[in-house]
Design goal:
405 residues, mainly beta, Cathepsin D, subunit A, domain 1, six-stranded mixed barrel, 47% strand
Length: 405
Amino acid sequence: MKRANAIFKLRYIISPILFFTCCFGIYKNCAAQHSVPVIRATRTDAIITDGKNVKVQWKIDPNLKPDIYYVNVPSKRSKVTLQTNEEKISFITKPDKGYDFVVLLNKQDSCHIRISSVLPPSPLVLDYGNTFPKKIPFKLIGSRIYFTGRLNCKAVNIQFDLGAGTSVVSKLASDRLDLEFSKSTVVSNTSGIHKERTSTSNVLDIDGLCWSGIEVTEVGNMQSYEDMIIGNTLFRDKIIEIDYEKMELTVHDQLPHKAKPYSGQPVYYEQDRPKFKANFMHNDKRYSGWFLFDTGRDGTMLIGEDITGQGNNWKEFKEIMIANGRKVIRLDAVIAKTKIRDIITNAADPAIPQGRPSLFGNQILNHFNVILDNKDGWIYLKPNSRATVPYSDYKSFLQQAGPEK
């Protein structure tokens, strides 16, 4: 009996200990699950790298809780790294996930940052009662693509510009469209950097595709026959196909089978604007760079400071002439394994930075049928029957400017 009582007392003593140990273990496990990584910094400037190609200058701000970086192609896994002047942290992201951490600035300010693998929030809502794919006819004016549509039930002529980071309307059309402007937006375009009026909560209809929540900013550098410019922002969760032979843009939910024989390569995005890699040859030397896929550029291309500022590139480029501080140069380019010869283009002086990126314009791009897979961050290109359509080449330059000296 005494032995039984002793065992009972021992069990009575051990039970609370086990209970405490279990609770403590659960607490430690929960705390570990909710712990947030911390790295240090003594400066607010940082760098975010996203996959192999994206590199972003980032400002650490303790006032934002959290400050969110959106993964460039959120539907794919990516390695995202934030590097401060002291330490760095990396995450292997998965679609629809968020990753929180803290940057301790100067040992006192906690800067909460989230890496978010979703598309940024947007007021845009696409209403389309039928199933995809959806074909939209277009016409070319010069080398640019134009749709007809209705903005708030009023007819508009719309340029489709994959090089546009926001939707805009012409100052010549805004009165006729009876727009209400409620805020302003800083716009950088061919006219420089300006603060312009912005109208919110508009409705746009293009051949049965209807978007609500459209923001449009008023600009003054558009052609007289253009009422509106839209870009890839409206299609960021879709796959778009541009067929320059049929004069059709097709919106897909899934990658079409016809993409298989096309030449495919990755893209990344700046303000929803796709950039792709291409090579060019100049003065017997090969160069490579990332270029905006700029369907709104009625020209061949532009070599920006992002390329001319590398190494000795600016000095190595042999100009035919100087125009407005830029070198006019002659080159051959290779896009989707197709060589385009004797292109005449401008190269920007890196000593006079204007923030203009390297790009290919639609005089060159409309020689290819295009499938842009925004979901997967991939572009597919196939040469089309427009290969004989002229562009600004060396022969045409000589006819206009006279022979090279």
